[in-house]
Amino acid sequence: MDYILGNTKKPGCFFCEYPNDVANYRQNLVLVVQEHAFVCLNRYPFTTSHLLVAPRRHVADPSELEEHEYTALMSLLRDSVVRLKRAVSCEGMNVGFNLGKVAGAGVADHLHGHLVPRWNGDTNFMPVIADVRVMPEYLDEAWQRLQPAFADLPGQHAT
After folding, report:
1. What pLDDT, on the 0 to 100 scale, is given for residue 122?
2. How much is the pTM?
């Protein structure tokens, strides 16, 4: 409800701020920060352990990334899929980018990919049918479970 009512929306771009706020990685749900990309939990997830993978540079579209930034983003996305599958034992996963507001991007001006773990019989129909989200786990608990799975990746991690 905080998101819907707008009580937690802050000015600025959290995708730009979070990687630089090392002291608050856990509070900001950041799992790993690399030179050109980073991973954090979605604060408003579709399901438990819903991750966001974003470039460090503020761009809206993949075509705006330099080749090395694109490669770093896609590499971290691939590495995140492997670690997320291992950490939550999901049976499937939705991976994608929503480009632009009309495509469903909640933050349209900073490119980011979604990794949404899926299980047979999960409640993903709830947001569509009843505009309700069922979350079986608190975000900090998800962060604590996922953080060790990302500890072997190069980059900055919460201490």
Report:
1. 78
2. 0.82
